[in-house]
Design a protein that fits this description.
alpha/beta, 5-stranded mixed beta sheet
Length: 155
């Protein structure tokens, strides 16, 4: 699993950039079958005024554009936070082979929490899922971001 860290590092860098731009710090990377980086994206919902501009969807769109296909068969995704239900559905529709994510999202996650989309009988494609990759770093980014926006009383 150690060979996966450079790709998660790229996702973490994208997440940090999102935070610097006032966006929830989530970053995503799509890696092709030959282990080449196809797309790196960060959350841009505020910037684009688009509730669907999650890092995962933006990365999927760019990787599909680069490959000239609506499917990402043989590709892997690295994302700093457990994908929400919308992003999990897009990951399934894109036929991503493996999903690696950092921090769990107990409130809005759609993979290991909430609807657990990939376990539903209506889910046509189930990627291999590996959670907890660089989770501490991803969780720290998120905690710092929200602490700065929601200061504790007396702070």
């Amino acid at each position: 699993m150690i060979e996966q860290f450079p790709f998660m590092d790229l996702a973490l860098e994208a997440a940090a950039e999102a935070a610097r731009n006032g966006e929830v710090p989530v970053g995503a990377v799509v890696v092709g079958a030959e282990r080449q980086v196809l797309a790196v994206a960060r959350n841009r919902t505020i910037e684009l005024r688009d509730p669907t501009a999650h890092a995962e969807l933006l990365a999927i769109r760019e990787a599909c554009r680069i490959l000239g296909s609506e499917r990402l068969v043989g590709c892997d995704m690295f994302v700093t936070l457990e994908p929400c239900a919308m992003c999990a559905a897009a990951i399934s529709f894109a036929r991503i082979r493996r999903l690696y994510f950092g921090a769990e999202d107990e409130r809005m996650g759609g993979v290991e929490h909430g609807p657990r989309l990939f376990t539903q009988p209506t889910c046509h494609h189930r990627p291999e899922v590996y959670g907890g990759i660089r989770a501490v770093s991803a969780r720290r980014l998120l905690q710092r971001f929200f602490q700065d926006r929601r200061p504790l009383p007396g702070r």
